[in-house]
Backbone:
């Protein structure tokens, strides 16, 4: 019976994001009907919340993976690569300035 209640609660609450308050409200109904004891309801609530957290983490991981693959397919430069290019350009600008100053000094002599 407990497993059936657990499955029906997961289905009715969406299972992806389950807050302790939502679960307690749902399990209180079963306690009032005498289908669960308070201890069983508390244990069920903890189990459902943990299951919801795990499912949410899995969803986040999948979404992150999909986004990464999508960005790779779009051929968008990574932030670290972009920063590296900025540093290289800045270094080249400094070298050009030094070389221009050298040439100017040589002409002035």
Residues:
């Amino acid at each position: 019976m407990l497993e059936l209640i657990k499955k029906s609660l997961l289905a009715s609450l969406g299972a992806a994001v389950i807050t302790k308050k939502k679960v307690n409200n749902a399990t209180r109904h079963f306690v009032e009907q005498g289908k669960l004891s308070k201890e069983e309801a508390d244990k069920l609530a903890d189990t459902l919340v943990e299951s919801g957290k795990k499912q949410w983490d899995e969803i986040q991981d999948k979404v992150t993976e999909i986004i990464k693959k999508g960005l790779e397919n779009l051929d968008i430069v990574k932030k670290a690569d972009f920063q590296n290019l900025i540093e290289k350009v800045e270094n080249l600008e400094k070298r050009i300035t030094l070389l221009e100053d050298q040439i100017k000094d040589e002409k002035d002599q």
Remarks:
- The chain has two domains: 1-76, 77-109.
- The CA atoms of residues 30 and 36 lie 6 Å apart.
